[in-house]
Design brief:
The structure holds three protein chains of three kinds.
Chain A (H helix, E strand, L loop, with lengths): L1 H23 L3 H21 L3 H26 L14 H22 L14 H10 L2 H21 L25
Chain B lengths: L1 H35 L15 H10 L11 H17 L9 E4 L2 E4 L8 H22 L3 H32 L4 H6 L6 H4 L1 H14 L11 H4 L9 H26 L10 H22 L5 H31 L1
Antiparallel strand pairs in B: 1-2
Chain C lengths: L2 H30 L29 H29 L1 H23 L7
Chain lengths: 185, 327, 121
């Protein structure tokens, strides 16, 4: 029990430090790294909740793919050592503080009214078998819907990322101009 | 507390063996390349050059620890560490042998057996990309940046093919635990059931480790070594260790997933495991000595247009066979 | 500690020891290695000439495009792992489910291919 508490404290501190880093640092690459720390700490927390599959999934999808994408974007857009762009939203700060305060209150309320009955996880809980069984029986429809969402994601990625000039090897298409106007990069 | 101490000692021992093996792998590679190219290779330091890795290590430790101007200091130091630690981390879940009786106790020849073993390996290697991206980004050097971009694009492209090959194995074995996957190969090794999966995994593994013929990120002639250009001394050594550990990792995974892990006649399990792993390490070196480097468009086309469709096909065929045999 | 977490605990100890093995040599090297900082020495390497411009030249947008497509397919592949594990128990139904899932995604791959998103130019 004690070991779990110690690990949890470390994970929580890591998540907090990472969260602070995400908002505090002015270098986008360091922001992305801080986000990585947050995600890693969350994965440890999932592990403590015995959700091992979710924990590893968190690392593969978020740390292994999404933050890499963030880094690519940062490197693409900001030439000066990934420095922050000058045109920031003026109302961003106050709104962020307001929303954070609201979220904090929500969390405190949840804690206040939570029934303090934590049962130990059943033996099978969190294994890939139990997740799979649930996903492919009870949640079959959401699973199929997810495939359609992913398809939308691919199409969006292709449309957004299309370069201004047509690739040579690609077959000629109908003459419709690209819907987003394919901004010059 | 005792428990922690035992595991820590076990881990340290394992890591020590691993690092020594990697040091000697550099020697093996240089000697073999020498043989391939009809020359000697390093043979002066100790008998057969056996002390060469030691000399190299000492040299790298006492090299000047310089840092180029305008680097992002934290990230610059962090990158090689990420590279090395993630490469080593994988060995927590790779089984080296079956349970053996030692001093009257059952000792499993592995550190841990987790339910999602192979996923943990993939997750770790996907985090390993950061070492390369950040190393190239923080160096403030054009070659480094280009090398790291190429490398990360290559790594993420072949990760998919690698994953698809692994899923076919998981389908055949019915588990993600590496121990169970090896257990499932008691009768017949998966290379016989999954020949296409094995080929896909092998090609993707070579690409994932940035080895020739897929060594574009480090192409000496165009990129001066890519993301490592501005690294010297021990920081360079850490990248190097990360890379060689990754080769051993991929060899160990090929052994574990497709070539029956520790199973084999006559000799004890761990010996078989080491022998098979060494055989694949040799294949990696052999490929480097034989094949010329591919172009970047060829690389991407191979990954996305050949390996991923083939991987999906292999998966569907495997699933059909499993369904037919099940009913 | 529950039995499930025990193996993960071993993994954590291994990670800590591994990190120490990487960090301690760095400290040792920091203490041992000689240093002689000359301004010329800290110039980044550019084949022997003084570097011009920034390292931060804009690079090919293709990298970004591949990363985007990768994220989507990565999520797809993730779904396949739990499927592969429970496949034997659920049998034909799970097979049909996954076939449908894969078909939809194959459409996506075909679309990206047809639109030239997988070409490297």
């Amino acid at each position: 029990m004690v070991v779990e508490v110690i690990i949890f404290v470390f994970a929580a501190l890591g998540a907090l430090a990472g969260g602070l880093g995400v908002v505090a640092s002015r270098l986008p690459v360091r922001n992305a790294l801080s986000l990585l720390l947050v995600l890693g700490s969350l994965a440890v927390t999932y592990l403590l909740l015995a959700a091992q599959f979710i924990a590893v999934l968190q690392v593969i999808v978020y740390a292994g793919a999404i933050v890499v994408l963030f880094l690519f974007v940062v490197m693409l857009l900001h030439r000066q050592l990934g420095a922050m762009s000058p045109d920031r939203l003026r109302w961003q700060g106050p709104v962020a503080i307001g929303l954070s305060a609201a979220f904090l209150i929500l969390m405190l309320l949840t804690l206040r009214f939570a029934t303090n009955a934590a049962a130990p996880a059943p033996a099978e809980f969190g294994t890939v078998e139990s997740v799979g069984r649930a996903l492919f029986t009870s949640f079959a429809l959401p699973f199929e819907v997810a495939s359609v969402i992913l398809l939308v994601g691919i199409i969006a990625a292709v449309v957004i990322g299309r370069p201004a000039s047509r690739p040579v090897a690609a077959p000629p298409r109908s003459s419709a101009p690209s819907p987003v106007g394919a901004p010059r990069r | 507390m005792i428990e922690i101490a035992i595991v820590a000692v076990k881990s340290a021992l394992l890591l020590f063996i691993l690092l020594t093996a990697c040091a000697y792998m550099t020697l093996l590679e240089r000697r073999l390349l020498g043989k391939f190219q009809v020359r000697y290779g390093p043979n002066r330091v100790g008998p057969f050059g056996l002390l060469q890795p030691l000399a190299d290590g000492l040299k790298l430790v006492f090299k000047e620890s310089f840092m180029p101007a305008h680097v992002d200091v934290i990230v610059y130091w962090l990158a090689p560490a990420i590279s090395m630690v993630t490469a080593l981390f994988v060995y927590a879940v790779i089984p080296f042998g079956p349970e053996v009786m030692l001093f009257g106790q059952r000792v499993p020849l592995r550190l841990a057996d987790v339910n999602v073993g192979i996923l943990l390996v993939l997750a770790t290697s996907s985090v390993g990309v950061y070492g390369i991206i950040l190393g190239g980004w923080s160096s403030n050097n054009k070659y480094s940046l280009l090398g790291s971009l190429r490398s990360s694009a290559q790594l993420i492209s072949y990760e998919l093919a690698l994953g698809l090959a692994v899923i076919s194995v998981v389908l055949t074995a019915g588990s993600l635990s590496l121990v169970s996957i090896v257990e499932a190969q008691r009768r017949v090794w998966f290379v016989a059931l999954q020949p296409l999966g094995f080929l896909i995994f092998l090609i993707a593994a070579v690409a994932e480790t940035n080895r020739a013929p897929f060594d574009l990120p480090e192409a000496e002639q165009e990129l001066i070594a890519g993301y490592q250009t501005e690294y010297g001394g021990f920081k360079f050594a850490m990248f190097y260790i990360g890379e060689y550990v990754a080769i051993v990792t991929m060899s160990a995974l090929l052994t574990t997933l497709f070539w029956g892990g520790w199973w084999g006649p006559v000799l004890p399990g761990p010996v078989w495991f080491v022998l098979k792993t060494l055989a694949f390490v040799f294949v990696f070196i052999w490929l480097r000595a034989t094949l010329p480097r591919v172009r970047h468009d060829q690389l991407m086309a191979l990954g996305w247009k050949v390996l991923i469709p083939l991987g999906l096909l292999n998966l569907v065929v495997t699933a059909v066979i499993v369904v037919l045999r099940g009913t | 500690m529950p039995k499930v977490l025990l193996d993960w605990f071993y993994v954590a100890v291994f990670a800590v020891v591994g990190t120490l093995m990487a960090v301690l040599p760095l400290v040792v090297v920091w203490l041992l290695a000689p240093r002689a900082d000359l301004p010329q020495k800290t110039i980044t390497y550019e084949s022997g000439v003084i570097p011009f411009g920034q390292a931060w030249a804009q690079f090919n947008v293709r990298y970004y495009l591949f990363a985007l497509v990768f994220v989507v397919f990565d999520v797809e592949v993730i779904y396949l792992y739990p499927w592969a594990v429970v496949f034997r128990q659920l049998g034909t139904f799970a097979f049909a489910e996954m076939l449908l899932f894969l078909l939809v995604l194959l459409v996506g791959l075909a679309y990206a291919w047809r639109k030239g998103a997988l070409e490297w130019v």
